[in-house]
Design a protein that fits this description.
The structure is a homodimer of 370-residue chains.
Chain A: E1 2-6, H1 10-19, E2 25-30, E3 42-45, H2 51-58, E4 63-66, H3 73-81, E5 85-87, H4 90-97, H5 99-108, E6 116-119, E7 132-136, E8 146-149, E9 163-167, E10 171-181, E11 187-189, E12 193-197, E13 204-209, H6 215-232, E14 236-245, E15 250-256, H7 266-269, H8 274-282, E16 295-302, E17 309-314, H9 316-321, E18 325-329, E19 334-335, E20 340-348, H10 351-364, E21 366-369
Helix pairs in contact in A: 1-8, 2-3, 3-4, 4-5
């Protein structure tokens, strides 16, 4: 089958890597000539945000999917009109792309998400009291396009663009759950993972699984995933990012309509990975079992603050000596401060051992430049 | 690093698939334009048995390795002279390529292997009594080039080519062990696996791991692997195929200087797979841990006897519904009787469950043509 992917980054690369177990042809579209997928797929250099480019790319594929959500959803809708299968469909991509539509979607389907207002440019309209969160309607990514406004003084930093103004959750834990639905309507949910973010880079740092939650909290999450899967009316794999607040209530922070950093530890930690599940979704195959096999954790390999240029992974030989420790690099030759260059998955027999190993590995390796 | 691979078949494909976790460039050489590696590597169509072709292919690589042993070893020796790293080295490839040299190697290093004579064309020279095994000196592969001569009558079938004449072992079990050695001299051994061959196609059928062996038998195997790893004087990953006879003695049947069908279940069954280990060897990295995580087994997907043409995997949807069951196809579009098209790995919590699942899966799926 000819599978076209909008985006040629690491998520696409790991998707294709896994799917090489099967007999398909992969086509990717990315503006960067050296994108991680460029040498493992039929590669087209081009802008996945451009209507004509996406239309041309997709028209001769059996199915078109995405590995990034900032794509031209109108072109995907037109491909659907022409009979091309698009996974997830253009409607849900558009809904998730725009924070305002995304929030309205949660509200319409009774999915708990922090209270919000819509702001279309001026701070005068805002009724919510401090502190609150501003999320730009479009273009946010990896923590960009999101800021906390704590006081009247902070208001001068307010972005004067269409935004969601959202109440600030008093976060106890950041959780994530990856869910999948195929065209036949079959659904499957991965075990919940817990994230520990690096406050400086605002990129996912450690991610661990499984997380032991009270029955009440697990029930809230199950209710959210069920409502979400019933509401979407589209095949797809989605990462639902959750806040658990200090009073034990679960809120949806946001959803990604694609493979997600918070699912990477599933590569070795679960019976099947998010990448395998996405493949099953794209081909409308029976969904894969997602059980945790053991304790698993993930840490991102992020370009060091001071370094730009040809990448060196300092200390990597020591990491490779550690048992049940799995290095995943993304085929990026150039590092930049904060750039996601790879990740390391770790397996362990207990949570204590897992945290010890993660901390040890993190101290071992540094992403620097020549 | 520029890694060149002689051969572009499924072993190369799975090697590259795994190694996409790292940042290397893969180049493959194969006579078939649609070889399984052709669209996931920089592909050269050409004959890996031709001196000039191999020399040209290898001269600009950082390291050259193999995924099939029937390659031009002289060209590899010349590449070594020119300073190119060859893994495993040309000397051990040549030794293993020629059954006569291979048998003499075992004898010289006190590695138990069935008694043998060298025959250079005529049956008159043979001193060994019936029944015995004839193995052609060169060109044998997947059970081809091997026959049993049971009687004077069978002698008319004797091949009149350079051969090894070997005593026939009264086989209780066929075992296999995959060993690795890197340039630094570090060595690592996978747990022993047991093979159950399909007598008709003479291709590996089920392969299971771990195998519970008496201390005496395990000690014999450990002694063999140690002697072998000490003797080779080359980095490499090798599959040592063993016979356990009915009196409890272990014999080396033959060795492959490469990734091997009997190691496929390591993809999900072991802490790291043979493909990861081969990568570590090729790059001279610390070797990976090889522990069995659980019971694992593998069955080959072989083209049905009656079918030639565009392949269909009948029953595959049912297989995909089974938990802890992993389908690996090789990207071959055309099936032929007996052609290795893929394999399926299965995990289980006990040997009984494993055998049940393997038999069930085998009955579920058929490789047919359109």
């Amino acid at each position: 089958m000819k599978i076209g992917i909008l985006g040629g980054g690491q998520l696409g690369r790991m998707f294709i890597q896994n799917a090489l177990k099967y007999d398909d042809q992969f086509y990717t579209l990315d503006p960067a000539s050296d994108a991680p997928c460029h040498n493992i797929s039929y590669f087209t250099q081009g802008n996945f945000n451009d209507y004509e480019t996406v239309l041309n790319f997709g028209k001769d594929k059996d199915v078109v999917t995405i590995e990034i959500e900032h794509v031209n959803a109108e072109a995907l809708a037109e491909l659907e009109n022409q009979g091309i299968k698009v996974v997830p469909n253009s409607k849900i991509i558009k809904t998730i792309q725009q924070k305002i539509l995304q929030k309205e979607f949660y509200k319409a389907h009774d999915i708990p998400s922090p209270e919000f207002e819509i702001m279309d440019g001026s701070s005068d309209e805002i009724k919510m009291s401090f502190p609150f969160v501003q999320k730009l309607n479009t273009g946010g990514y990896d923590g960009k396009g999101v800021q906390i406004i704590r006081s009247a003084e902070d208001l001068r930093n307010l972005w004067t663009k269409d935004s969601v103004i959202e109440s600030l959750v008093d976060i106890d834990k950041e959780l994530s759950v990856i869910v999948a639905r195929n065209e036949n309507g079959e659904t499957k949910t991965f075990p919940v993972t817990e994230m520990v973010a690096d406050p400086k880079l605002n990129l996912l740092d450690f991610n661990i699984c499984p997380v032991f939650l009270s029955e009440n909290i697990q029930n809230q999450i199950d209710s959210i995933t069920q409502k979400f899967l019933n509401a979407i009316n589209s095949p797809g794999l989605f990462a639902i990012e959750l806040f658990l607040d200090k009073e034990g209530k679960v809120w949806v922070n946001e959803t990604a309509p694609r493979l997600h950093n918070s699912g990477h530890q599933s590569q070795e930690g679960n019976a099947n990975s998010q990448f395998e599940q996405m493949y099953r979704v794209v081909k409308n195959l029976p969904l894969a079992d997602t059980d945790s096999l053991t304790y698993s954790g993930m840490l991102n390999l992020v370009g060091g603050e001071e370094f730009s240029g040809k990448v060196i992974y300092e200390g990597m030989d020591d990491v490779l000596k550690m048992p049940k420790t799995y290095v995943h690099l993304y085929g990026k030759t150039e590092t930049k401060p904060g750039r996601k260059m790879g990740h390391i998955n770790v397996l362990a027999d207990s949570k204590e051992e897992l945290m010890e190993k993660l901390v040890k590995v993190k101290a071992m390796v540094r992403v620097i430049a020549e």
